[in-house]
Amino acid sequence: MTDYGHDLLFGTFITPSNSDPQGPVRLARLSEELGLDLVTFQDHPYQPAFLDTWTLMTWVAAQTQRIHISANVLNMGIRMPAHVARSAASLDLLSGGRFELGLGSGGFNDAAVAMGAERRTPAQSVTALEEALEIIRGVWDADNRAPLRVHGEFHQVDGAKRGPAPAHDMPIWLGAYKPRMLRITGAQADGWLPSLPYFKEGDLARANAIIDEAAQEAGRSPSAVRRLLNLGGAITDRSSGPMQGPVSQWVEELTRMALDDGVSGFIATSDDPDQMRAFALEVAPAVREAVAAERRSAGTVPAAARRGAAALAARRPGIDYDSLPPELAARAVEPGDREYGSVRHNYLRSGAPGLVLRPQDVDEVAAGLAWVQKQDVELAVRSAGHGISGRSTNDGGVVLSMRGLRSVEVVDEATRRVRIGAGATWGEVAEVLAPRGWAITSGDYGGVGVGGLATTGGIGFLGRLQGLTIDHVVAAEVVTADGRVLHASRDEHPDLFWALRGAGGNMGVVTWLEVEAGAVGDVVFSQMTLDATDTAGLLETWGATVEAAPRGLTSFMILPPTRRGQTPMAQLLTVFAAEGADADPDEAIAQLELLADAGPLLGHQAQLLPYSGVVRREDAHHSGGGDPSARSGLLAHLDQDTSRAVERLLGSGESYFTAIRATGGATNDVAPDATAYPHRHQNFALSALGGDQGRLNQAWDAEIGPVMDGSYLSFDTDSRPERLLEAFPEPTFSRLRAVKAVYDPSNVFRTNFPIPPAES
Q1: Each residue of 225-250: pLDDT tens digit?
Q2: What domains appear along the chain, each with residue ranges and CATH number?
Q3: Domain FAD-binding PCMH-type: where (predicted)?
């Protein structure tokens, strides 16, 4: 009996016939409507009666929303591996992570040669496929800066640029039957995808044994290879042989294959809609139930929790990996796992955590939090990993990633109340809300996570119109250090609700927030470049213009370093918006002309577009980004003294990226004690990135220290204790310590703005 513990997948195998071009598309859409997991298409490019499989898969991806798509299998005898890698990654990115790559060494050699392919013996085809695997994985390794070089017998790349990476950890499934291909499958592939009609009795078990042995020899767990199977057969009223009979027979046979032969992907090979309905609605649910019941009884370990020797050797001290609850182990990522490179870092900070947990609901968050507290390592909580401060990763500790909780749900149309998972990004939120004419101010980049921004502040492109993001949060669900799941609002746990809006990372793990969106139509987005030779004069004029502008205008300034012989420049990113309506282009132009007068204008472009076009959905592929040092401070005004101080900071050369974000407006309508973010009179936030923390601190303290008025810690990496009182001046700090003592007396959440609990 062999059960590798994979979750079960059910799919269809559709003939890409071109006699009715939309026929395969309809069947694919039907597969999705029936709740199936996967739709696949055979690939025979030399067959004039078939649609091109790549084109068909792309069209189907655009016509569906949820179902995953794969070739079954892609003929590599006629394709360049690097091209396949980029095509697959592109389709995965465009479909939101719904493409899987099924490959074969290529059959029908004469037909392929007739189309211009190189003639190869079966052994040569296998060698070529093995080389292709190396190239495809090399192209996907986008974090590797070294050019890709593979000098194979049949495939060569010499200095190819890597990327893009797929949207998800895309598996490669191989169609394999002979011993050598089976050994390659066990050593290198993520799945095995043969067809049952080609097997004689005992072949499935014998092939599994070869794959398992090859996997173990490669230091992998046999469960690293998912076993899928094209079924053949038909669902009929009477039994006439294997896979030829009623639903009950199919359920019995598939359940046995899942538990005895480790098959976890069942693909029905039929173009008959009635067969597809019976398979999806009758067979699949019954097999899932039967297998789940047997696994519960047997205590089957999920596939993701089984690791080979190489992965086990990479484990870090202080973490009891074997005690991890099964529901978390199934999706956890360890240093030896292939996905590790895509989850270890955040946007600008390199990390090497010992484990990344990826819960999917609040119960798993609570289970993960309880387990982490029994480990002898630090905990980091990650929303989407974009934070400048880098507190969402660590070295050797545990990261609790909230990306699995990223739903965006409207809960009250009248008040525009939206419930958002903490792992969602603001680009995803904007995309959902834009068709309704709604928007929530949310930073300046769509890849920023909801949970981080909406619990610390939220200085965004609609900030002067709407205020801070936290000003629109009306409720939250929080898992506290002792495992309680609390709802915080003005009526429930109001002390916690107050603290969450400004210092949320100190109090617990937020799983969702309810936010009241604003009615915002299309906005004008302007990108303007100005001569910054007179930096102080530019800043002073721009600052005064912004403060005098209507609240619908919010402007950010970026001051890049000036290279020798070049004119200093400033880039303005400005949004002009109106409450409850589209922005008036004429009014926007008038205000932008005033901004343009702040300095000599070098370039300008503006467009009218939805807010989702400004804060766009972004797929994060974080690779560390250089580990910059950062400082942050709030400024009441950009008066002459303050503008000159910023100019001197730039002149020091210690900041290679300096940004000033306008706040104020509606932000300053809120009382300082209404939230744990008390800074309600400042009009600008200044941030600087440098290469050395000590030198940046010295320049910052000398020039900006005397003029700054508070701090926004999300943009600061200086760990000196005085930063806390700059961010949370009294009486806010003492009040936060008192709340901390109630909800986190043991200081479990001490790596995000480290507020110590008040002593009893």
Answers
A1: 999 999 999 999 999 999 999 999 99
A2: 9-303 (3.20.20.30), 523-727 (3.40.462.20)
A3: 348-520
